[in-house]
Amino acid sequence: MMGCCTARCTLMTICALQMLASVERFVFDMVGFMWTPVLVGVIDIIVILFGMFGIHQYRPKYIYLYGIWHILWIGWNIFIICLYLEAGVLTLEKNGNILSMGTGSDSWWLTHGFGCVVKTRSTTTIVEGTTTVVEDERLSVTGCVLDGRYTEVIHAGVQILLAIVGIIGAILVNVKFAEEEDSFDFIGGFDSNYSSYNSHAQQKESSDVPMQPVYIQRGIH
């Protein structure tokens, strides 16, 4: 059992918080048809599960995978923040299709935030003289308590914070695992030389046992 004051327990708690945050974000990305964040979110959820398994089962390689992925995850979320804040050459109008994979979808939060009122205009298109297509064009979004762009920035910021703490926790846990293995080797837990020494000692001890003659008494007929 893990003590709740150990590095393992702390990292497991961080993973649980990351899982909640990633699943919540994944759901709203799905609703908004933001396919690139959806795919990246699926990878993140899978890696978090690997990390939790590695923590519970003492598998350092899985924890290394967790740490390396979350370095990349930090980079992805920095890109998201820069995109929604339109930092540098990035603009949501020109580069937003990177998130929707060219489908023209927008973040769910841009139009469905608290208090948001969306003004649209319907346009009718006649295809081949028979089919009528009605499309709603979004004109403006007003009244939002918090701009949807800032909501996305907050989501990305929370992910970055959790990822940084998780990477530090992963390093500490793997260092702890290494120390435990070294101390176990010291007392002969995994030391092959120690094991062979024990085997040789047992063989020598058994060979030193004095042999006693065995007499067989034959019956007199």
From TrEMBL:
Highest taxon listed in the record's lineage: Eukaryota
Membrane topology per record: Multi-pass membrane protein
Keywords, comma-separated and alphabetical: Cell membrane, Membrane, Transmembrane, Transmembrane helix
Cellular component annotations (GO), alphabetically ordered: plasma membrane
Biological-process GO terms, alphabetical: regulation of sodium ion transport
Localization per record: Cell membrane
Classification via InterPro entries: Na/K-Atpase_Interacting
Membrane-spanning ranges: 35-55, 62-87, 156-175
Main location: membrane
Presence of keyword Membrane: yes
Record bears the keyword Transmembrane: yes
Family: Belongs to the NKAIN family.
Protein name: Sodium/potassium-transporting ATPase subunit beta-1-interacting protein
